[in-house]
Specification:
Layout: H1 8-18, H2 22-54, H3 61-88, H4 93-127, H5 141-163, H6 168-185, H7 187-202, E1 210-214, E2 218-225, E3 229-233, E4 239-243, H8 244-248, E5 251-254, E6 263-271, H9 277-289, E7 301-307, E8 312-320, H10 326-343
Antiparallel strand pairs: 1-2, 1-5, 2-3, 3-4, 6-8, 7-8
């Protein structure tokens, strides 16, 4: 015979609902409708009043905050109306408790989805005012943004568990054991994560900088800094993704670092013995002064470095506007130096050896 025991809870709930007072149901419906109307009133008048106050301030931060809180406030008023309606409706205790927990969970989710973009807006605003908020810089902005999202999600999970009266201590203990297992299984990922936090906090480079990694001699412009990896764009328009742990364990040269963005380039030139040293110096200075990519300040200079095996070694030192121009500037300087020295009749030697063969007696 067909077992109908599973219908007993439904029959009990239906009987309880059938015994509800019509007056209580009408009051609950009235309160729910009042909640909807109140939400519209808050939407029109309260937020309009707050917008009026924000016009009195010079900053745009309060305008962004009010705009972000516009919908969450309206939805929260609706949930409050439904919550009060459930309390006065006279529903069975188990049904009313379930609906109350559900509304509390929805309220936590509304707060979460409102707080996450709100935190990003606040941190972005703080990063634009570096003199007032030294800790929040454009380079460390991803760290604060991701950290705030993790904290908000953790708080939302905790409040959601409290709403459903779940034993949080037992779940925390289980999470600790699971965390140890995940830590051993994903140690490489965690190494990249902690290295990413260190990079964002220490800020050895920022987006737009030209960096060189050794070993590997990989050079490119930083396009993205994440918690797990860093992306650089090479001069060949090839994007390379480098794990942050590899960057933390390598020697990094930041060509865009320092107090200014301009960069010095060096051009080593060898001329034959017997050349006029003063003439070579003047010609190399002319090479730098006639090149448009070279900055006039600081002024270029020439150094007589050493007596080489095949010639005299000179070095031209000059400055370019930014690291991105390094390759073009070196090419132009080499081309111009070769032409101007050749026109002046100054020989550029190349290594050569004389071999004397002695005949055996």
């Amino acid at each position: 015979m067909f077992d109908q025991d599973w219908l007993i809870p439904l029959k009990t709930a239906w009987q309880s609902l059938a015994q509800l007072s019509l007056e209580r149901i009408l009051w609950a419906l009235l309160i729910a409708v009042a909640g909807l109307l109140s939400a519209r009133l808050v939407d029109k008048f309260v937020t309009k009043l707050l917008y009026g106050w924000t016009q009195l301030t010079e900053t745009k931060l309060d305008d962004l905050i009010i705009e972000q809180l516009h919908r969450p406030i309206r939805r929260s008023v609706v949930l409050i109306g439904f919550y009060v309606a459930i309390l006065v409706s006279g529903l069975p205790e188990n049904v009313a408790s379930f609906l109350a927990h559900l509304l509390q969970t929805l309220f936590v989710l509304i707060c979460l989805f409102a707080a996450m973009p709100l935190a990003s807006i606040v941190f972005r605003w703080m990063s634009r005012h570096e003199t007032r908020f030294e800790a929040v810089q454009p380079a460390s902005l991803p760290l604060f943004s991701i950290g705030s999202k993790v904290a908000l999600v953790g708080a939302a999970v905790y409040l959601g568990m409290l709403a459903w009266e779940i034993n949080v201590a037992a779940w925390v203990a289980s999470a600790g054991i699971m965390g140890l297992a995940v830590g051993f299984a994903a140690r490489d990922t965690l190494a990249n994560l902690f290295a990413g936090v260190s990079i964002l906090a220490d800020a050895p480079y920022k987006i737009g900088d030209y960096i060189v990694l050794n070993p590997g001699n990989q050079r490119g412009m930083v396009t993205q800094i994440g918690l797990r990896s860093t992306r650089i764009l090479t001069r060949d328009d090839i994007e390379i993704t480098i794990p942050n742990a590899a960057i933390a364990n390598s020697t990094l040269v930041n060509e865009s670092g320092g107090p200014a963005i301009h960069q010095r380039v060096r051009l080593r030139v060898s001329v034959a013995y017997g050349s006029d040293v003063d003439q070579v110096r003047d010609l190399l200075l002319a090479v730098a002064e006639e090149e448009p990519l070279v900055r006039p300040e600081p002024a270029p200079r020439v150094r007589f470095r050493q007596f080489g095996d095949s010639g005299l070694i000179f070095e031209l030192l000059c400055w370019i506007a930014e690291a991105e121009l390094r390759g073009r500037a070196i090419d132009a300087l080499h081309t111009r130096a070769y032409k101007i020295l050749g026109d002046a009749g100054i020989e550029i030697p190349f290594p050569q050896q004389d071999i004397n063969i002695r005949q055996a007696p």
